[in-house]
Amino acid sequence: MDRALLSVLLVGAGLLGGCAPSPGLVADPATDGAGLWLQGEVDGSHALLTVQGRQIGSAFGLSFHVRIDDALIAVVAPTQQPVLGEGALLIERVDGGDVAFGGTRPSRDAGDVEVADGVIATLEVRARAGATSRVELEDAVARDLDGSFVPLAAAGGTLTLEAP
Fold this sequence. Notes:
Elements: H1 3-12, E1 24-27, E2 35-43, E3 46-54, E4 57-59, E5 61-67, E6 73-80, E7 89-95, E8 98-104, E9 113-115, E10 118-127, E11 131-143, E12 149-151, E13 153-155, E14 157-161
Parallel strand pairs: 2-13
Antiparallel strand pairs: 1-14, 2-3, 3-10, 4-9, 5-8, 5-11, 6-10, 7-8, 11-12, 11-14
C-alpha cells in the first residue's frame, strides 16, 4: 500500500497524530436514590462544572469534595447555591486539587430544610495544559438535625480541556 495513502487512513482513524480528544465532560452515570452528580459546560480551555443533587430530602447540613488533577487543571471559582436556606453558613475551601464544599443551617432552632433537586454548587476551572483529568465527587453526606449523617451516592466524570 502506498505510504501516503496509509498515513491518510491512519490519521482518519485517529491512530496517527493530530487527533486530540475533543474538549468536554463525560459524566459517570448517576445512580438511583439520594446523590450528587456532575454536569458541565466546556469552552476550549475553560469549564463550568455543576454539582447536581437529587432526592437529598430534609437536611441540616451538606458536605462533599470535588477532586481534580491540579497539575493539569486550575480551580478558578467554587460557589455553592443557597440550598440550605436563608442564614446558612456555606464554606468552600480550595487546597490544590481538592475543593471542599460544606454548609449548615444557622442554628438548631432553625431546624432542617428540604433540599430541592437541582444545582447544589458550581466550580469554574481552566486548563493549565491541554489534557484529560478525572473529576471525582467524594465524601458526600447530608446531616440531619439530630447529628446523624446520611451518605449520598456520588458520580464524577472525565474532563478534557484544550491547552490555554
